[in-house]
Write a structure and sequence with these properties.
Length: 202
């Protein structure tokens, strides 16, 4: 199944002629620290067990310590899995969609909170990119800021997306094309509203 058709279902009040041009998500590099954190948290109980076995092996011979260790380890792994799943949900479900009509930001906050903001292309005033530090330059990802007019939020933030300069160029092309279309449409409406001159000659 085409991925564009999948994301088409996420569009609020989609129109028949509306087509998805860009689907922007966070670069996979930005999720590596979360994976490293999960591995670190998962290794702590194992490291603790081997440390006790090496320095205080007599404690493992008691009846109560292994039970406490199992219960505590289970609770710890449950916490680590919940933290990892929450971070993965935020990472995976954050998506920015650009169509031939509008810009849509779908941002996940935790497991049960999602915000959706949108702006028409003709409302876009400025597009700029921010690439900070050697890691972003090395892996070619960064932030994209889309400034809009007439909206409460005023600006869209596309965080840690791959190739932000290319995305900015494409958005500006769409914005210019949409503005020209609306300008031509306004001209046509004005021409239609002008009174027609009829020939009153004999």
């Amino acid at each position: 199944m085409n991925i564009a058709k999948i994301f088409q279902r996420l569009l609020p009040t989609p129109k028949e002629y509306e087509k998805i041009v860009l689907i922007l998500k966070r670069d996979w590099v930005t999720f590596v620290p979360q994976v490293a954190l999960f591995v670190f948290l998962g290794a702590l109980p194992i490291a603790g067990y081997f440390l006790i076995q090496k320095f205080e092996p007599t404690l493992l011979a008691t009846q109560w310590l292994p039970m406490i260790f199992i219960l505590g380890g289970s609770a710890w792994y449950l916490f680590a899995l919940l933290l990892f799943f929450t971070n993965f949900t935020d990472f995976f479900l954050d998506v920015w969609i650009v169509t031939n009509e509008r810009v849509i930001a779908i941002v996940q906050r935790g497991l049960f909170h999602r915000t959706v903001a949108q702006a028409r292309l003709y409302q876009v005033q400025d597009v700029r990119t921010v690439v900070k530090g050697p890691i972003q330059m090395l892996f070619h990802y960064g932030d994209l800021h889309v400034e809009t007019a007439g909206l409460e939020h005023g600006e869209f933030h596309f965080d840690n997306i791959p190739n932000p300069n290319e995305a900015a160029r494409k958005i500006m092309e769409l914005v210019e094309g949409d503005r020209k279309y609306h300008e031509e449409k306004i001209k046509m409406l004005k021409l239609e509203e002008q009174p027609r001159i009829t020939d009153k000659g004999a």
